[in-house]
Write a structure and sequence with these properties.
The protein contains ten helices and 13 strands. It is an alpha/beta fold. The strands form three sheets. It has a five-stranded mixed beta barrel with strand order 8-11-9-10-12. Helix 5 crosses helix 8 and helix 5 crosses helix 9. The N and C termini lie far apart (39 Å). The structure holds 1-O-phosphono-alpha-D-glucopyranose.
Length: 276
């Protein structure tokens, strides 16, 4: 069988989720549920549909519920076996049957770049995907990660998913600028983490989907903390772009920012309508 180009997906999931307090005081924000499924399960399903079967999760203190979610719960299985409730577990059973889960802990909150570097022992020396579960994406055809893997197979370099945002919101995202080499595909020449609108090179924002080549780890090791005193993946990607090539990809589909209440509610309403 042909070897898949992207076999592993990293899920940084150590953050505190302060925007959802008090809900996230004792529960991981990744376990917040849109309809009946936690955010992280949407992310894992997206990766799985894109042909990835090794899920690498960066956890932290208080995140045990994530591990329990992707595990068998014998008592529950026993209780509902043969009842109509059994179908509610079908999606998670399918994941458990076809994916492996590895976990490592990020002990200090030193930024997304640091979280990704923490995942190096799980990823090894191969290109990998990153999904930030806060960004829930819904697509009519291929999902965002499938679209990005097709692009990776063609260009063999790091890729970030991007979308146009309100120019006044640039300080909430990594912002890129560059040259459009194909429709919706931009070769990055500039990349800044959360710039003020007047300092932003464009209104093209990075959303929580990345494909990274493994040289990113050595670059991250040498990347100094910047915005908010954190090690930023955006800075490491800019280093990679200046040495070689990084692409911004305007994905087809809709992203919901479930890291804030408005986006979360919008996702809930839309998915409810679609699934009704
Ligand atoms: C992170 C990244 C940022 C990116 C965003 C996408 O920020 O640092 O570059 O635009 O994810 O969701 P965070 O939302 O974790 O502050």
């Amino acid at each position: 069988m042909e070897q898949k180009s992207i076999r592993k997906c990293l899920f940084p999931a150590a953050g505190y989720g302060t925007r959802f307090l008090p809900a996230t005081k004792a529960m991981p924000k990744e376990m917040m549920s849109v309809l009946t499924k936690p955010l992280i399960q949407y992310g894992v399903e997206e990766a799985m549909q894109a042909g990835i079967s090794n899920m690498c999760i960066i956890t932290g203190r208080g995140k045990r519920a994530i591990e329990d979610h992707f595990d068998i719960c014998y008592e529950l299985e026993d209780q509902i076996r043969g009842t109509s409730k059994e179908k509610s577990l079908a999606s998670i059973r399918k994941i458990i049957a076809s994916c492996t889960f590895s976990y490592t802990r990020q002990m200090q909150m030193k930024g997304l770049g640091h979280a990704i570097l923490t995942g190096k022992p799980l990823v090894g020396n191969e290109a990998f995907a990153v999904i930030l579960a806060d960004d829930l994406c819904s697509c009519e055809g291929r999902n965002v990660m499938e679209q990005m893997i097709l692009l990776y197979d063609k260009y063999q370099c790091s890729i970030v998913a991007i979308e146009e945002i309100e120019p006044s919101h640039t300080d909430q995202y990594g912002i890129i600028a560059g040259t459009e080499i194909e429709d919706g595909i931009i070769k990055v020449t500039s990349m800044i983490e959360k710039p003020k609108p007047e300092e932003a090179p464009s209104n093209l924002a990075i959303i929580g989907r990345y494909i990274l080549t493994p040289d990113i780890f050595d670059i991250l090791k040498k990347t100094e903390p910047s915005k908010n005193g954190e090690i930023q993946i955006t800075d490491a990607l800019m280093t990679q772009a200046s040495k070689g090539k990084v692409l911004g990809y305007r994905f087809k589909g809709k992203r919901y920012d479930c890291g804030n209440v408005d986006g979360f509610v919008e996702a809930t309403i839309d998915l409810y309508r679609v699934n009704k």
